[in-house]
Write a structure and sequence with these properties.
The chain is built from 5 helices and 5 strands. The protein is α+β, with helices and mostly antiparallel strands. Bound molecules: FE2/S2 (inorganic) cluster (2 copies).
Length: 158
């Protein structure tokens, strides 16, 4: 079957790729663009491991087709740091030992960044609600919430 040619922006760079009509954006990111920071947990929109933003909206890339990325701007975990400089959220995850496994952490960070862009001064409850779509099957969420609140304080200059 003929593949579809798609042009989009990924982490600020213009990209062009070919994809099958049924290929998800998650598959395109990982298999065609080799951006393997975005993970597959459930594949059904339940775990948040595949979180990216599409035109600024937090999106489960396992639920979106690659062809739907045409003309869109996508941000993945690979676009979060600026060169060697970590994003404040990444730094605070390190400082608070909020890092968990490589499957859930990228999605947590992408979702937290999206939350702070919408709400720079969230309450603890709002952070918990904002990350409710990101599941970890192993541990608690307390350190993650602390890290996000601390990053929010730093980003506000408080
Ligand atoms: S892999 Fe997409 S929500 Fe779980
Ligand atoms: S799923 Fe990543 S640490 Fe539990």
């Amino acid at each position: 079957m003929a593949k579809n040619r798609v042009t989009a922006k990924v982490n600020g760079d213009s990209v062009e790729f070919l994809c099958e009509t049924g290929q998800t954006l998650l598959e395109v990111l990982r298999d065609e663009l080799h951006l393997t920071g975005t993970k597959e947990g459930c594949g059904t929109g339940d775990c948040g491991a595949c979180s990216v933003t599409v035109d600024g909206r937090l999106t489960c890339s396992c639920l979106m087709l690659g062809v739907e990325a045409e003309g869109k701007s996508i941000q993945t975990i690979e676009g979060m740091a600026t060169g060697e400089k970590l994003h404040p959220l990444q730094q605070k995850f390190l400082e608070h030992a909020a890092l968990q496994c490589g499957v859930c952490t990228p999605g947590m960070l992408v979702a937290a960044k999206s939350l702070l862009e919408r709400n720079p001064n969230p309450t603890e409850e709002e952070v918990r609600y904002g990350l409710a779509g990101n599941l970890c099957r192993c541990t608690g969420y307390h350190k993650i919430v602390e890290a996000v609140l601390d990053a929010a304080r730093e980003m506000r200059g408080a």
